[in-house]
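During the reporting period the student researcher (J.K.) took over the structure-prediction task from the postdoctoral fellow and processed the backlog of single-chain submissions. One of the processed entries is reproduced below for the supervisory committee.
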Amino acid sequence: MTPYGLRRILVNPTSLHILCAAIALGCCIAILYPGFCPHQHQEAILHHAGIFLLASIGTSAALMLLSAATHMLRLSNTRAIWQLIKWSMVWGTATLCFLLLAIIANVPPPEQQKHATPIQTTDTLHPAKDTLLGPASLSIPINPADQDHQNVAPMPHLTHLENNHGELLRYYLDHSPRWTGRSTDDTFYSKPGHLVMEPPTTSGVPGLVHVSFRRLIGGDRLPEGYTTVHPGAPMPPPEDDKNRIPDLAIDLGKDHYLLLAWRGTSHTETAYKAINAAITAIDTRLQPLAENPTPETVEKLLQGKLSFSGKMPEIRLCEPPSQDGTYQAEIYANPGEPGTILLYIKNISTGQTLRLLNCPAQHSPHPDEQFRHDIPGSVPEWMHTAFNSDLNKLFPRHIPLFAICRGKQHQYFGAAFEVWFKPSDIQKPRRLLLRRCYTVQPYAPIHPPPHADEENPATPRH
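J.K. obtained the following structure tokens:
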């Protein structure tokens, strides 16, 4: 721009004031009427509209001040005042247009930051021992009462799939969060992310059956210390005079082995009955695939039952046994419209938000239908929040567990789990669906988070 053109703008910038006011009104239209914006680009458009709105107002104000200063330096005070009057007229007209647009848009008032009253009137603390209903649950109760303790339980469905539909079985095991956690770890039973079968406690002594699948390819070997057995074969005797129950590797016939590690009482009959109950429970869950071996059946097994009858939302929280400080949650809700389910986990004593987890909301027009939302098992990677991102790195994405906070284990405290719904329509405020409080504990990682040093060099080692 030539010096002459710049002087003209400084002397009479009215046309630029009008242009800036028009840009600002256009931005206001996008903000007041977001429904006209493409849904997939709505947030980006509103973000840029706010930037252009502030930029146009700031540019026009700066031009007005420069123009007034230019006239005053030329000793033309009357023209300086006239420039201020014209600027006020332009933006006064723009303000009136904005008010008219706002009245027509009928924008709702800003939502309150805190809900006025909780849904529950009391904060009763519940233990994190709820039974999850989804296919990613890492804790399954079993009943060993009627099981044989002399022979390994038969596995008709698993062996049939292994010998006749190996590819389908492999696809299921490779994609199910229940089985993909520690399938290649020799000490899977000492780390979070594996399935635990829990029999009833007897005589005050708890016991657990830790379970994992292992596929051996090209000369791979079983972990050291496992005893190989076959379905229906006699149970191996205890390993020493202390009646230590051996870790079992059940040969399914080809590449797959089912690893079972009993941890509990050394009473042989109790342990072997629990192991057989675990084998039977796993084989029964694969019965639909054995009877109808199709990819569609595999997808049904991976998804599980998606909705249940009920009129009220519900949350279930589970801390898998022997995996202290790690949690799974299932939320049952039907907001009736598209949006996002938000789970705020807050320390009851301080009110501090410890975690924020989310997932896309499932919905239908039927109020007596509640949809299952897995937290965090079904959450796509792009939906994971950056809130406490170091906690998100504690477990690989395919492990359906989350930690609430770091710290010393067994230091229990009360946490409020608040389930909110945020509609896709940004004109509608978010709303609280339910609140339930649990007794929880921190998680102390055994090893540094995976790839923490590469992604964040400042992340300390633990």
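The committee noted the following: The first strand starts at residue 125 and ends at 127.
J.K. will present the remaining backlog at the next meeting.
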